[in-house]
TrEMBL record:
NCBIfam families documented for this protein: PRK13688.1
SUPFAM superfamilies: Acyl-CoA N-acyltransferases (Nat)
Domain N-acetyltransferase, chain residue ranges per copy: 10-155
Cited CDD domains: NAT_SF
Pfam families found in the cross-reference section: Acetyltransf_1
The protein's enzyme class: transferase
Keywords noted in UniProt: Acyltransferase, Transferase
InterPro entries: Acyl_CoA_acyltransferase, GNAT_dom, YlbP
EC number: 2.3.1.-
Protein name per Swiss-Prot or TrEMBL: Uncharacterized N-acetyltransferase GCM10007216_08900
Length: 164
């Protein structure tokens, strides 16, 4: 029996931040969130880029999803708003149970192209989710190897170099 996993926008608050400490990929985004909280700039209901899935009261999977405006689009044709997906992570005891797929499906539900920079050893997961390698462009990608997903009617932007 597969229950539907509920993806929700995570509140910007100390409880969420405390839960993030259980994830390996704990870094600059969370620290800047902490600074915002400490200086009381951020309200509990402000638009957080983080989404997650709870198992009971515990946050067991999360990602951040940023919308990037069309004027910055260097990946897709026609140029358009797209999402950058970062920090997709499922706690070790919950892997292989559909949490990562539920987060990716949620991101796809906006029907915007998605770009991600996968962590080492995660390419297989992203390929199963329908992502493909973007043609590498040195100035744009700066040593990253982005993967992209495109909804119907969207193509990868042609690069200035000859295709392989």
């Amino acid at each position: 029996m597969v229950e539907t996993l509920q993806v929700e926008r995570l509140l910007v608050n100390y409880k969420t931040l405390e839960e993030f400490k259980r994830f390996k990929e704990y870094g600059n985004q969370e620290l800047s969130m902490l600074e915002d909280l400490q200086s009381n700039i951020v309200e509990n209901d402000s638009e957080s880029p983080f989404f997650g899935i709870y198992y009971g009261n515990a946050l067991v999977a999360r990602m951040s999803l940023y919308r990037v405006g069309a004027k910055y689009d260097q990946y897709f044709n026609p140029p358009q708003d797209y999402h950058e997906l970062w920090k997709l992570e499922v706690l070790p005891d919950y892997r292989g149970q559909g949490y990562g797929k539920a987060l990716v499906d949620f991101a796809k539900s906006y029907d915007l192209p998605i770009k991600t920079n996968p962590r080492i050893n995660s390419h297989g997961f992203w390929e199963k989710m329908g992502f493909q390698k973007a043609h590498y462009e040195m100035e744009r990608d700066l040593g990253e190897n982005p993967l992209i997903w495109m909804p119907a009617g969207v193509e990868e932007k042609e690069t200035g170099e000859n295709p392989e």
